[in-house]
Specification:
Blueprint (H helix, E strand, L loop, with lengths): L1 H29 L2 H22 L23 H21 L7 H7 L4 H19 L2 H4 L5 H28 L1 H30 L21 H7 L6 E4 L8 E4 H18 L4 H12 L3 H24 L7 H21 L5 H29 L7 H32 L1 H4 L7
Antiparallel strand pairs: 1-2
Length: about 425
């Protein structure tokens, strides 16, 4: 039980750190006319695709690059685009308001809408890659990046993303249902641990007088190190990499082996789950490897661009596992959802936000947990009838979208009711 709590806490740290990146990227895009223009250009293929499909008069649609056929409509329709915006909006509201990764709900939402898990993963990765490219400020953060550390980390990340993408594709070729079951199981475990920790955290802190504090996780660690990072840095397996020279006299040194292994884990999880891997980089770098938070933030920005881009394009796009229309709709919805959510934190107590986050993550857990028996029954692993699996699946879908929908309505309603306050009047401390 102690291990599960520690792992849940570890994942929460990562979710908060990744949300900080998403919020900063959203701010840079929305507040910059040139970046908004780039977003508009990214939407052009959707418009042209819609025109092409409208004029095809029922002709058979072309296959995806790589010979794979569409597993859901790969062309523009108003319904598809609106649905993708709403999914992105929900994820953005969670990220902006709660300060923890709302991207965790994207794959469950897409799979609940009938999209194959492998396409949900590829689409989510492409959406993250587009956001990273548009919101990147690597040139401003270069002073906080150890180039050697970042490049060695990326060697592992590319290997991990390749392995993760290959596993997903091999499982899909064996049986599409097996692929869905695998991805669903990963999300059940991850969301179960994260949701349980979030609920325990909420219940423990709801009666404390200062429980309305920072919902975004407070300050990050500086250059302090615990016992585990000290032991890891004491291992002198060459080549050694020096970093944090500007923060610690003489800098710190770590074996490249640990950086490659960390990169492999991050890239592997990114390619398997479609969440970019950013939720692992921060806690591993700071609390396991002993890298300062300043260097970690800069490196995380650097790695998200390349890890998500490599995984999305080389492991999914060229094989036909990306739904471009959904990716761009989610990007558009999440950008503005994050803006609204971030403003609502000024007028809502932090403990209330923690409670909603626990509910949202557990709703995602219930959604995937109730979908899993149906996947296993399709493979004849569980002796369940179609009626039973349909009922379980429906319960998971309704519970998920009901919780996310109520949360979205509450956030937007709170925003509209407090517009005058948010324009400059007194806000909650």
């Amino acid at each position: 039980m102690r291990f599960l709590r520690q792992w849940g806490r570890f994942m929460m740290m990562g979710a908060r750190a990744h949300a900080v990146w998403e919020i900063e990227a959203s701010n840079r895009i929305v507040r910059d006319k040139k970046r908004l223009l780039i977003l508009g250009l990214l939407l052009v293929p959707i418009i042209l695709g819609g025109i092409a499909v409208a004029g095809s008069e029922g002709e058979e649609l072309p296959q995806f690059l790589g010979g794979k056929k569409a597993y859901s409509p790969a062309f523009f329709t108003t319904g598809i685009f609106v649905a993708s915006i709403l999914i992105g909006l929900g994820a953005g509201l969670i990220t902006g308001c709660i300060g923890a990764g709302g991207g965790f709900i994207i794959a469950p939402a897409l799979m609940s809408a009938g999209i194959r898990g492998i396409m949900a993963v590829g689409t989510d990765l492409f959406h993250i890659f587009a956001k990273a490219i548009m919101g990147s400020v690597i040139h401003r953060k270069m002073g906080n990046i150890s180039i050697a550390l970042a490049l060695i980390f990326l060697v592992g990340a590319i290997l991990g993303a390749t392995a993760g993408g290959m596993i997903n594709r091999i499982l899909y070729e064996i049986n599409p249902v097996l692929s869905d079951a695998f991805i669903t199981t990963i999300y059940v475990i991850m969301l179960g641990l994260l949701g349980t920790y979030a609920l325990i955290d909420y219940l423990k802190n709801r009666k404390e007088p200062d429980a309305s504090g920072d919902a975004h996780g407070g300050k990050t660690e500086g250059v302090e190190m615990g016992n585990l990072p000290r032991r890891i840095q004491s291992v002198k397996i060459p080549p050694m990499v020096t970093f944090d020279q500007g923060l610690v006299p003489g800098g710190r040194r770590i074996s490249a082996v640990f950086l490659v292994l960390t990169g492999f884990l991050v890239g592997f999880c990114a390619a398997i789950m479609g969440v970019g891997g950013g939720f692992l980089t921060f806690p591993i770098f700071v609390y396991v490897l002993g890298v300062s938070s300043l260097t970690t933030v800069g490196t995380d920005i650097f790695q998200i661009v390349f890890t998500a881009g490599y995984a999305a394009i080389s492991q999914y796009a060229v094989y036909g596992f990306i739904f471009y229309t959904l990716a761009m709709g989610m990007l558009l919805g999440s950008l503005f959802g994050i803006q609204i959510g971030a403003m609502v934190t000024k007028v809502v107590k932090g403990i209330t936000i923690r409670g909603f986050y626990a509910m949202a993550v557990l709703a995602g857990f219930v959604n995937r947990a109730f979908a899993l028996p149906g996947k296993l029954a399709e493979m004849d692993v569980l002796p369940l009838s179609k009626q039973v699996t349909s009922v379980l699946d429906a319960i998971g879908i309704w519970a998920f979208f009901l919780v996310i929908g109520v949360f979205a309505v509450w956030v937007i309603g709170t925003f509209l009711r407090n517009m005058s306050t948010l324009k400059g009047e007194e806000v909650l401390p």
